[in-house]
Amino acid sequence: MWSPATVPNVRERELLEEYIAGAGLMQLSTVCADGTPVVCTVWYVPSFAPDRMLFISRQDRVHSRNIRRNPAVAGAVLADPPTELGLTGRGVSFTGRAAELPGTGIDAKKRAFAARWPRSTGVLGAMPDCASRMYEIAVERWVLFDEENFRESPRREIAGQ
C-alpha cells in the first residue's frame, strides 16, 4: 500500500524529470471491465508542475475504451535499460488519472506533441474528424527507481505536483 511521499530532495525531482523527459515510450496499464489490467506501449510528451503525460491513440483501442470507463492508470518509463542482471537500473513509474481530450480546443497540447514527435502532425491535424484522440494523464504519484544515484535505497516515492 502506498503512503504519502515525503518531500523529495531537489536531486530526486531533477532526476525524475530528466528520465521522463529523455525517454520516448511508456508502458501504460489500464483496467478492463472485468478488473484485469492490460498494458500497452505509447509515445508520450511530459509536462511538469503540474505533472502531466500526453499521448495519442485510436479511440477504438482497448486502453482508450478502458480510460473512458475507468480513468485509473499506471505506467512506467525506463532510462537506459540495463542489458543484463547486475547492472544498475534507472526508471520511473507512476499512477494517475487519464482523460480523453476533445479533438478541438487543445492547440497548445497538439503543438507540444508535434514539436516532440513531428510525424504525428497528420493525425493531430485531422482531429476531431479522425479516429484518434489525445489523452492526458494527471500524475498523482511517481516512483523514482535509481540504482545508480541511490544505491542503498533506490526506490523513492514522490508526490505529483
From TrEMBL:
SUPFAM superfamilies noted in UniProt: FMN-binding split barrel
Domain Pyridoxamine 5'-phosphate oxidase N-terminal: 16-142
Gene3D superfamilies assigned: Electron Transport, Fmn-binding Protein, Chain A
GO MF term set: coenzyme F420 binding; oxidoreductase activity, acting on the CH-CH group of donors
Keyword field: Oxidoreductase
Cellular compartments per GO CC: cytosol
Name of this protein: Pyridoxamine 5'-phosphate oxidase N-terminal domain-containing protein
